[in-house]
Amino acid sequence: MFTKRLRQAVSAALAVAMIFGTNVVSAFASAGDLAPGSTYTVPVSMTSAAPLPAVQTAFATALGDSVQVEVDELGNMTAVAHSQQMIIDFMGTYYANIKTFVTEGVEVVSTRQGQSSTTFGNPAAVETITVPDEVRIPLADNSGTYELTVTVDFMDAFLGGGQPYETKVTMTLDLANAVQVIDYSGLESAIGQAQALPEVNYTPETWANLQTALEAAQAALTSGDQTTVDNSLAALKEAIAALEYKGADYTAVNNAIAKIPVDLSIYTDETAQAVRDAQNAVVDGLDISRQDEVNAFAQAIEDAVAALVLKDTTGGNTGTPGGDQNTGNTGNAGNTGNTGAGNTGAGQTVLDKNNLQDGIYEVQAYLWNATSDRASMAADSMKNTTRIVVSNGAATMYIYTQPMTLGTITASLQTLRVENGSGGFADAVVQTRSADGNPTSFSFTLPHREEYINVKVNPMVAMMGNQELDARIKVDYSTLTAVSSTTNLAAQPSGGSGAPSASSPKTGDMAEAGAALWLCMMGAALAVAAVYGKKKGMQR
């Protein structure tokens, strides 16, 4: 009986206290205007006029210790707060929460789960309910004191009979002690973005401008001033946006184009057109951000050149077979002309160098001394197997080169000039080059079908003054053979270099012989000097 009366008395006292509390408003002096476009951390407290200290203590921290006050560009202020679990210690521990904000304009941004006491006198009677978490409260002025209308689950249960029971509380903001919140997040993000950019991709001028803006942005991180931070962020974003890419590297494209044969007419129309299409697909002027596309252009050209297929030709004139292979004039016992008895029987053909059908042929040739029947001093620079391509009756010779060594000197044939029909010399065309840029094959119009072709060669040896040497190409037409229609002229043929044993000399060429001897002596001298220098170094 006593307990029941005590509960009734306490409930009545709480009701009086809550009702009385709705008529009390605390005054707070104006703290002046806060800067537009800024955010502040402001101490906060909630006040209830309830005479019970336990209730006053519970309400004091209903919104925590502080709120964020945002001030827009027009000066309008909004408090961003988070409601807290209230605990009322009064003859037991009871849990309470602000359940709703009735004040017009208050926006509940998010919710949370809170503990709520359901029975006074029985602290163990607790349930979990959904209550506001983050709320945005518009502030009508900068007085610092704002009256809010709320409902509280504890009061709904004991004074509202389970229905919403509105009550008024006072939110007090200590604007005099507001601390500006500096938002560094955007600046920190932009700094990270700038630091991750690769310098190699951008032009020196725009990269230098970025570095200047980046240094200013890093300094602004310790400025403690939002305006400085915002200005530095804007400048850094502008510098990032103004970066200009360097141009893409077209070296691989240029190298691939250099491998395209000068005469594509000797290849099948389909494969020749594929080369032209690959070259025409190249787009000039792309920047380095599109380097992969440029590399793809180069690869497409390389693949098309490698896939070139020579036109299918018959491979030369048919001679007069002997024996049972007769299709024309029959020789004695298979003889064909002056080649001897049965020499070209069994269907073999003799190629007439002066009457070659369109096609590709291989023939052994040697770099010969200009006046003597012996190899030139530069003979090792030329491979012996050469090719002759006949197209529409016109013949083009292809020769293939390699590095040669004289003593300690290594050189490659750099230029080749061929005597033309008028007594002058015309430059041969460089068809292919090695990775280090040295020519590996030349082509020229065959001036005649005689054994010797007068040429001028230059291996570009600095110690010899890069002088041009007179020489001859000795063509052994007895080795002339037709080759497969799939031969790739860019591919080096098999076959060594130098020359076969020379026949008896006719006239000496002392200039070339002297040059060769001089080179050998220089190589020997350099070798001796190197050994001597090494010994001197060891003696020291």
Write the layout of secondary structure elements.
Layout: H1 2-21, E1 38-47, H2 53-60, E2 66-71, E3 77-82, E4 86-89, E5 93-96, E6 98-101, E7 107-108, E8 111-117, E9 126-132, E10 134-139, E11 145-152, H3 153-158, E12 166-173, E13 179-181, H4 185-195, H5 204-220, H6 226-241, H7 251-258, H8 269-280, H9 291-306, E14 359-369, E15 385-391, E16 394-400, E17 404-406, E18 409-411, E19 415-419, E20 425-427, E21 429-433, E22 439-445, E23 452-458, E24 469-482, H10 510-539
Antiparallel strand pairs: 1-2, 1-12, 1-13, 2-3, 3-10, 4-5, 6-11, 7-10, 8-9, 11-12, 14-15, 14-24, 15-16, 16-22, 17-18, 19-20, 19-23, 21-22, 23-24
Helix pairs in contact: 4-5, 4-6, 5-6, 7-9, 8-9
Q: Please, could you describe this protein's structure?
A:
This protein is α+β, with helices and mostly antiparallel strands and 540 residues long. The chain contains 10 helices and 24 strands. The chain has helices at residues 2-21, 53-60, 153-158, 185-195, 204-220, 226-241, 251-258, 269-280, 291-306, 510-539, and strands at 38-47, 66-71, 77-82, 86-89, 93-96, 98-101, 107-108, 111-117, 126-132, 134-139, 145-152, 166-173, 179-181, 359-369, 385-391, 394-400, 404-406, 409-411, 415-419, 425-427, 429-433, 439-445, 452-458, 469-482. The strands form 5 sheets. Strands 1, 2, 3, 6, 7, 10, 11, 12 and 13 form a 9-stranded antiparallel sheet that branches. A 9-stranded antiparallel sheet has the order 20-19-23-24-14-15-16-22-21, with no helix packed on it. A two-stranded antiparallel sheet has the order 4-5. Helix 4 (185-195) packs parallel to helix 6 (226-241) and helix 8 packs antiparallel against helix 9 (291-306). The termini are far apart.
